[in-house]
Structure formats: C-alpha cells, structure tokens
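Section 5.1 Outputs to date
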Amino acid sequence: MRTFSQLLGSRGSRRTPFSALIGASVLSAALVGVPGVLATGHSTAKQLGAGKATAPTGGSVCPRHSIPLPANGLAGATEAALRDAPRLFLGTKLAGIRAVQATRADADRARGGYAKTKCGRAIQSRTIDVYLEFPAQKPSASLSQGVVVVTRTSGGYVTWARLH
C-alpha cells in the first residue's frame, strides 16, 4: 500500500512545498468531489437558486409548489429562460440571444428525463426544457447553445437547472 507522500510524488524527485500543496489540493478534490459535478452525477448539471426549493436525491434542486402547465406554458417558460439568462450564463455574450426550442419535459426525448430522474414524474409533467442560442458566441457550437429547465410554480415560472 502506498503512503500519501508516495501518491504525491515519485521517489527521488524533488518536491517544493508549493508543488506538494498543489498535489494535495488536487488529490483532496478528487477524493471529496467537486460540488455540482460529483454531487449531482452530471458534469453539465449546475445548481441554480430557485427560490422555494427542496433537495431531492442526487443534490439537485427541485421547485416546490409546482402547478399544471397552461395551454400557453411554452411562452411563459421561454420568457423566464430569457429573463434569467444573464444570471444563468455568466461570462457568456448574450447579444442576440433567442430561444430556438421549448418542449414539455415529458415529451422531450433529449433532455426531458432530467426532471423526472431528479424530481419525479409530477415535476416532469409541469416542466419545460428551453433550448437557447447565443449568436454572439459563434462559431463555437458548444458555447453558442444552452438548455435550461423551467417549472411553473404558484409564484410563477422558476428556472431551476442549467443542463448545457
């Protein structure tokens, strides 16, 4: 069995106190886990403040007091996603931002399972996945896209997860 000092460096190598500190920090981060990555089990899932929320299994945040979606629920969720984008996508150039798709989570084969897995079927049926595009971030395919999860609650539409 290797000792902690052997894990930080090979025999015969000279380690400065600073490099040993960096090695210990990296090792402790790997052992403990990085919040939002290992805690949720999804490297792209980022927790967001959602006002009134409960913590289900997996460390995600589920909205409380969800209510059924109205016929025009896609519009309300899209407005909430665009409203919350500056808070959700810090450091992203938002000029020209637009929603390119809004889909009920229970009908979204690509991302809809997230709400059900984290919060259950009832939340999934009251949730909309909104796909955003950031033209100012092009030509990067990844940086120019975003996906957020929005649920209708008694207090309005709540954006509670950023999936991409």
